[in-house]
Protein: Sodium/solute symporter
Organism: Phlebotomus papatasi
Amino acid sequence: MNPSPVVRVSFWTIAVGNPFVLLFHLGLNPTSIQRYISLPKIEDAKVCLIVMSVGYVVFNALFLITGLAIYANYEDCDPLKVGTIRKIDQILPHFVVNEGVEIPGLAGFFTAGIFSASLSSMSSCLNTLSGCLYEDFLVPAHQHFTEQQKSLLLKGIVLIVGVVQLLLVFLVDSLGAAVFQLTVSVLSISGGIAVGLFTAGMILPKMNEHGALYGGICALLVVGGISVGAQMRLREPTLPLRSDGCSNITAISAQSYPEAPSEDDDVSWIFRINYMFYALVGSILVLAVGYPVSLMTGGQRVRDEALLAQFLRKHQQEERREIQYSDVNTENK
C-alpha cells in the first residue's frame, strides 16, 4: 500500500494509474470507437461496454492465477537464473511447454491461441489505422478519389504499416525491456493526451484549439521525455532469484542481474515514476497547460452543448423546463 509513485507495483499503480490507460483503450481508442458506432443503438454500445468490462475482469483473474501458478512452480528454481530462458518474457511459453507435456496438444493449442488472438487484434488495428490516415490526411488533400482508388489506397496503407510493424519487432527485441512495460509506456503517452483533450472538451467550455495544441505538445514532450529517460536508465532491479531447489545446479547461468539501487542513486525521481502513471501525468498536463493558454488566447463559445458533459448543458436544461411548463399549461387548459 505504499503510495509512492516510484514503486514498481503497488495498489495505487493499479487503482489510480491503470484506469487512465483503460479509459483510453476502451473509450477513446479508434478501434473501439469504430466497433461502438457500428451498433444500431447507443444502448447496444452500453451493453457492449458492460459485457467487455466483465470479460476484462475474468481475463485478468485468469492472468493472476496463471502468474501465481508459475511462481509456485519456479519459486525455488528460477529458469532465468538457471539459464533455460534468456528473457523473463519467455517464462510463460516455457511453463506451458514443460509442465503441459503430459497433456497432448496443449502446447499446440496455446500457440494457436496466441497467434489467432494476435492476428485478430492486429487486423483490426491495421484497418482502423488505414481508415484514420486516409480520412485525416488524404481526403483533405484530394477529395475526388474513385472507389477503386480508395480501395487501392487503403490496401496500400495497410501493407506499408504492416511492414513497418514487422521491422519494429526486431527493434523491440533489441531493447531488452519487458514487452508489457514498453507497450504500456508507449500507449500511455498518446492515451494520456487523448484523455486530457476529451476531458477538456467535455468539462471546460472555454478550451480552444490553441490550448489543446499547446497542452498536447507539452504533455507529449514531458511524458515522452520521462519515458525515454526511464528506458535509458539502469534496469529495474529484480527480486531475488532462487536456484537451490533445482535438481541440476551445474547449469546455472553466469548472467548478471541488476542490483538494487543504492541510497545515493543520482537518477532523478522523475525518471523513476511508474510507467502506469504516464497517462495520468499526460492528462493533467493537458488540462494544466491547455486551459490557461485558452483563456489567454480568448477562449471560445460552445456552438453545440451536446458535446459538453450533461451537468454543463445550461440551454438544454432551460429548454426542458420550458417544455415541461408548456405541457403543464396545455393540460390545465
Observations:
- The longest helix spans residues 106-141.
- Confidence is low (pLDDT under 50) at residues 258-264.
- Residues 97 and 107 are 6 Å apart (CA to CA).
- The radius of gyration is 25 Å.
